[in-house]
Fold:
Amino acid sequence: GPDDACWPTLADWNELNASVSGNLIADTPIAASCYPGPFQSASACHLVDTLWTNQAFQASNPIGLSYPDDSCPPVNVSAGQKPGECSIGTSPRYTVNATTPDLVSKTIRFAGEKNVRLVVKNTGHDILGRSTGYGSLSVWIRYLRAGIDFHDSYDGDGCSASDWRGAAFTVKGGYTWDDVYPLAAARNLIVVGGDHSLVLKPRAWA
Structure:
């Protein structure tokens, strides 16, 4: 973790940032604006407090979660609440906004070489907590979108475990059911998926 002697140096993180085209994000708690410090802002805090339970808002933040913990909760100042403790908790320390497969590969390689815990996040809907991890580096694939392909007849794509040969969609990247369902409806097809439209479609990324 960050307190270990083997934790990557600032130069290491800067080198990673350069290799991923400046897409490295130093994570801060979403509600940091509600607490004393360099990020404190009454207007920003009010916005965070208002949208805290909005899953689309959480999904738009690199460390946002559909079920956020209480490591740094928002403060409703108008209701008389006072700031308590705020920490980044088990959220990743750094996130790479991996908009291409190449950025995913470079992030994974860095984590392996520097022995940093790696987690993967799309919208943050993982109830099991696999999108978080103390002192981790996150691959954020929310904006990795290489297309959704429709196949009249699916050939298995090299997967011997499936004998399905009917119509199918290939979802390439961080799409959600909200992106897939309209494409199926336009073809008068049914896609069996999650009830919540903001859930990530390709589960293999988790």
